[in-house]
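Provenance and format

Records in this collection were gathered into a single text stream. Each protein contributes a sequence line and a token line. The two records reproduced below are adjacent in the stream.
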Amino acid sequence: MTDFDDGKLKDVALRAALDVFDTMLSMDARETKKVPEGFFNGSKIVGSVSFTGDVMGCSRIYVNHDFAKEMTCAMLGMEPDEIEGDEEIHDVIGEVSNMIGGGVKSHLCDMGFPCQLSIPNITSGTNFTIETRQWAWHEHCCLQCAQHLAMVEIFLKTK
């Protein structure tokens, strides 16, 4: 797994995320190098999936509620006033996290690390943190899409 020591894991996560934003959301996203101060403060929605097998870990996407709503409209072809509640928003963020995780999983399997993907998990609220410890590799990338930001994190370790 030493291939990920040189930043390859970040590249894999970035490519997977950009592909999802382009093909599934029809959104023009690009990498921004710095996570802005206060990005993790306030209301946010986090979609995550876990990997298990020859490699273990997780993939997460963090977005604020406004961006999650915009992503939902884009994926479902809806107008903002048609969204009735958070269930649709959570479903879309779960699906986006699943697709990003699936892109990473596919790459891991191609590298000889067969693994399975969990169902998506959604965490939402205000002023919370998610701690992840004891992973051999941790990378993140921040995406900008118009005035919105998303952050993707990947944590991995081998058995």
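Adjacent record:
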Amino acid sequence: MGYFRGDIYSYALDKMTPICVYLPWDDNRRFQVSRRQKTLILLHGLEGNCSYWGRYTSVERYAQERNLALIMPEAEMSMYADMRCGQRYASYIGKELPQILGQLFRLNLGREDLSIAGLSMGGYGALRAALSHPELFGRCASFSGALMLGSREHLEKLRQYQDPGRGEDYIEMEEIDRSMHGAALGAYGSDLAYLPENDLLWLAEQAVQSGKELPRLLLTCGTEDFLYGVNQAYADRFQELGIRYQWKEWPGIHNWKFWEECIRDCIDFFCE
């Protein structure tokens, strides 16, 4: 595939921002023009960046086989929010980026050609974008999504957080909690204020009430993942709201081994 990594200007962010782009070739290493390609916006997690999907998985190879263009934007530790102390990443990812892709790369961006997906924080970000702009995205997938971000319950938990300090041994959950708390302060402000547009369940209710056709949804999570219960609870609530989705689970934890399996086994979902 053709690979581009560089910077684009975003009016929503009011700055240049990094992006990684894979464009499919045909069998003779020429740009694919004989078949209509589809496009997948692929979002990173809390401690990642726009390079992570390409570095830690074989997503390029899977996409090349399916004539799928990959767009991997940078969202920093924004919680994919229009941050109170930072930039407007929700507006950039969910609304402005598709416009940029059409103008700059001339990609097919009709609703049935455009999907969005992500892991962990990016899974939340993908669902946030798809539920906020169902007219833009035909498909959306969340891999081990941190779906509780922005909810009242999660914000209350963050308000109770006290940093234990860093000990000699690395304790993964302590590091995750520390990173999540620090990122939340930037995204939601020092008071960790609740805003409904950051709450996936509120967005889901609004999307259903709008009467718009919703994107096809795919939710995955490893059965040993610390977010497994969260994902199950949100899937149940989506079902109560009448939102259709596919659910896939198998043994796994919150790591790249599981997300490699996700993108390998679920790539067909974006290409149907």
